[in-house]
Design brief:
22 helices; 17 strands; 9-stranded mixed sheet; binds nicotinamide-adenine-dinucleotide; 663 residues
């Protein structure tokens, strides 16, 4: 069967050959055995819904074995026989070009070079799923290949509910992931619902087909490391940055360290993850011996090298050794997957990776204790170095939250965290409040020359805007122009021909309109997909991350993210998604995003103007209402130039007056 025929066949009528379990691939950890015997019956019944009854006798024992062995039913046999990667848009069988673009984005997420555990359909973050099983993947691809521009595909947590009639301006796909009744949003609820095959953790860009590999995060990480280094004063040269994680997103840290010009040391316990990043050129040197690593660090710092070192081992061992040896660390953070602490996101010190995985599956209560003990040691070592002047920040992975829950010494007397989150100190006030966020695009021709052309356009547009930008955002504009100029040289593409930069509403809109024009004129040879990370101005309500710099008490509400996705949906998005979980964990955040296919048409130009405007200004308006000064500045500037925009502004009060009134 050709690639096209296999897609059109969907779930094949005859049983495909069983696939061998590929040991070369990085596989998801075995999930904990959480279902009761009766629930296991239900899980199998649910899985078999995708297949004709004639196959059930054969599939039931196979799926039962998967559930027992892996804690989930992935339906490995149904992995397609073709290689999965983003092909040029015209290679997909399709009646709708928009749907073909979505197929390419899905395939990019699942590309073995891009996905963390591709065979378990996990894209990043340990549990960030695109689909729950391979039957869903096959059905979705078939629906996309056969749908028209007058239909909408409805996705419930990886399951395609079906195609419903709509119209050409409606989204082609609406995605919800992990949406549950709030009282059922504890981590074990996710384990149970996911094992039953009725819900999934979509992370942010995983379950919304918008992941573009580590590049997506390199830029944000570079901005963060650069600004963190600025906080320490002086030049970044010779500054030491210590952190953990070389996984999906965390793998961007060493590259960002190099771009920012510091010495970085990143601990990674999983040798497969470390080797992958090393082979890709994202980290310069791998070390598994602390006796050798410590002198290497001292030498790199003394010589002001721009170099990224990795410690293949547990980060707690690294921190303790750095503290014991009095190594001066300037910047510290952590990007283990603590949003998912009990199921493989964080490996406790004192155990090998294999021992941890075994304990996690066989004795989850003991594993939890080991993680919490490890976090207490982790924080104790960080505290010792912070006392000597290290600037430590939480990287939005729930490090401080889980450490505090573990009883680590991480709280101040007033109950707040000892260390800031990167959003409170850097991303919030400097970027999100002004509307700057992780705008991205993917060239559907998959030609590097189209990407190079788009980079050129973006530099020109941003430079023109920067020429008349107010002083408040001049620095952000400068950093972004520098980034995009260097992007091609830094070889950031892994998977599809994609690019990211941080831009505000004006920047995003003008860049997108210029791309549309270039496509219309044939200077760019195929449509472009616009999108963004959910980690943005308006897309995400996450009290310990994106909205951690909201101080009016509304941090725990999620109106903004829900409104955002609804508003994008009727203003021209090609697909929208809204998720429970993402970044800091299931139950801790609601986040949403969009994808928009632009093809050089008038319709595309209209969608760009209407949708991007809402997608950025919704969040600025909310941030302004929360009395954030930068957001107030940005929304007043926007109202002055946009007829029809009328935002409710807060009146500021004298706090002394209130305190007196309450006496
Ligand atoms: N990069 C960003 O800008 C950003 C922003 C917000 C949040 N985050 C958060 O960062 C976390 C990491 O994301 P990811 O996609 O890289 O996840 P990931 O699971 O792919 O990578 C985490 C890595 O940490 C390693 N690890 C776990 N415990 C360790 C330990 N004790 N010592 C050394 N290594 C250990 C794991 O082996 C894994 O490779 C997530 O919680 C994510 O939400 C990242």
């Amino acid at each position: 069967m050709t690639f096209q025929e296999e897609i059109l066949a969907g779930i094949p009528a005859a049983l495909p050959e069983a696939k061998p379990y590929d040991k070369e691939i990085n596989h998801a950890p075995r999930r904990k055995d959480i279902l009761t015997d009766e629930e296991k019956v239900l899980a199998l019944k649910n899985a078999l819904r995708y297949f004709p009854e004639s196959l059930h006798a054969q599939l039931a024992p196979e799926f039962a074995a998967e559930l027992k062995e892996y804690g989930r039913i992935y339906m490995y046999r149904y992995r397609p026989s073709y290689k999965i990667y983003a092909r040029p848009i015209d290679e997909y069988p399709a009646k709708s070009r928009q749907a073909a673009a979505i197929m390419a984005m899905i395939q990019n997420n699942l590309d073995e070079r891009v996905a963390q555990h591709p065979h378990e359909l996990i894209i990043y973050g340990g549990n960030g799923a695109i689909f729950q099983n391979w039957a869903q993947y096959r059905l979705v691809m078939q629906y996309l290949a056969t749908m028209t521009d007058e239909q909408t595909l409805v996705m419930y947590s990886g399951h395609p509910l079906g195609l419903f009639p709509s119209h050409k301006d409606a989204p082609r796909v609406i995605v919800t992931n992990g949406m549950v009744i709030p009282n059922y949003s504890k981590p074990d609820d996710w384990e149970r619902f996911n094992a039953l095959g009725v819900s999934q953790y979509g992370q942010m860009t995983a379950g919304s087909y918008m992941y573009i590999g580590p590049q997506g995060i390199v830029h944000g990480t570079t901005i963060t490391v650069m600004n963190a280094a600025r906080k320490q004063g002086g030049s970044p040269a010779g500054k030491l940055f210590v952190t953990a994680g070389l996984g999906g997103m965390s793998g961007a840290q060493p590259k960002a360290g190099n771009i920012a010009g510091v010495v970085s040391v990143t601990a990674e316990i999983n040798p497969k993850a470390a080797e992958k990043r090393h082979q890709q050129g994202w980290v310069d040197e791998l070390h598994d011996n602390l006796d050798e690593l410590i002198p290497r660090i001292r030498k790199a710092v003394a010589n002001k090298e721009v170099v990224s070192l990795a410690y293949v081992g547990n980060v707690v061992d690294l921190w303790e050794r750095l503290a014991d040896e009095n190594v001066k660390v300037d910047l510290g953070s952590d990007q283990t997957s603590l949003h998912n602490p009990w199921a493989g996101g964080y490996y406790p010190v004192g155990y090998s990776l294999e021992e941890s995985k075994k304990m996690m599956a066989e004795d989850p209560a003991r594993f939890k204790e080991a993680v919490q003990a490890s976090l207490r040691r982790h924080v104790a070592a960080v505290n010792r170095l912070a006392a000597k002047g290290m600037y430590f920040f939480d990287y939005g992975n729930a490090f401080l939250l889980e450490s505090s829950r573990a009883g680590a010494d991480v709280l101040k007397a007033d109950g707040s965290f000892r260390y800031p989150s990167y959003v409170q100190d850097i991303m919030g006030p400097l970027y999100f409040d002004y509307g700057f966020g992780p705008f991205r695009w993917v060239c559907m021709s998959e030609k590097p020359e189209d990407l190079a052309k788009s980079d050129e356009i973006a530099v020109k547009v941003l430079s023109d805007i920067a020429a008349h930008s107010p002083e408040e955002i001049a620095g952000q504009m400068r950093d972004n122009i520098h980034w995009i100029r260097e992007a091609g040289r830094n070889h950031l593409v892994v998977g599809s021909q994609a690019r990211i930069l941080y831009a505000d509403c004006e920047g995003r809109t003008q860049i997108a309109l210029a791309f549309n024009e270039a496509i219309r004129k044939g200077e760019i040879s195929a449509p472009i997909v616009l999108g963004r990370d959910h980690h943005d101005v308006s897309g995400t309500d996450s009290p310990f991350r994106e909205t951690s710099n909201i101080y009016d008490g509304s941090r725990f509400t999620a109106d903004m993210a829900v409104q955002n996705v609804i508003g994008d949906g009727f203003r021209g998005a090609t697909w929208v998604s809204i998720h429970n979980g993402g970044g800091v964990g299931w139950g801790e955040v609601i986040n949403g995003g969009f994808g928009m296919v632009i093809d050089g048409s008038e319709d595309s130009a209209r969608h760009i103007k209407e949708m991007l405007f809402w997608d950025v200004n919704n969040g600025i308006a909310r941030r302004s209402w929360a009395r954030n000064e930068a957001a107030r500045f940005a929304i007043e500037r926007e109202m002055a130039r946009t007829p029809g925009l009328k935002v409710t502004l807060p009146n500021l009060t004298d706090e002394n007056l209130i305190r007196k009134a309450l006496q």
